[in-house]
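Renewal narrative, Specific Aim 1. Our central claim is that a sequence can be written position by position from structural information alone. The example that follows is taken directly from our test logs and has not been curated for this report. It begins with the structure tokens describing the chain, in the order in which they were read.
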């Protein structure tokens, strides 16, 4: 996709905050970033279309163009315009976080034991149904 739009693709394999710090270090002229947050996301309710980063994060403007889109709006756009997306969404994941706190959404489990793709989720209130409570995820990973 980056090639199609003549964009520079930069891959930084670090946690989110450290990745932004690295991005700013490599490109100090960056003053704004596009985000995919929506009001229904954790901490999304208080955001505006243009929201400065939180204190303690690299200083820039967060641009939130899909802030008021619904879960179904997102999937309609992705499918209509054939936007590439992570293949985990085709395996029943509806919200992707860390490997230790993310699993397929039980709402998408079929009677045969397989999962339907994420765009089939009807109740967007259950979008994060595949997320494991972080305290449980930390306890589970400490036993491995």
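The sequence written for that structure reads:
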């Amino acid at each position: 996709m980056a090639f199609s739009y003549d964009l520079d693709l930069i891959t930084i394999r670090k946690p989110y905050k450290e990745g932004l710090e690295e991005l700013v270090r490599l490109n100090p002229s960056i003053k704004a970033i596009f985000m995919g947050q929506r009001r229904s996301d954790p901490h999304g309710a208080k955001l505006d279309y243009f929201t400065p980063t939180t204190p303690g994060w690299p200083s820039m403007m967060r641009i939130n163009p899909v802030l008021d889109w619904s879960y179904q709006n997102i999937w309609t756009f992705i499918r209509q315009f054939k936007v590439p997306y992570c293949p985990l969404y085709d395996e029943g994941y509806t919200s992707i976080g860390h490997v230790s706190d993310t699993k397929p959404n039980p709402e998408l489990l079929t009677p045969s034991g397989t999962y339907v793709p994420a765009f089939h989720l009807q109740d967007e209130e259950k979008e994060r149904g595949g997320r494991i409570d972080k305290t449980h995820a930390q306890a589970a990973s400490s036993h491995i």
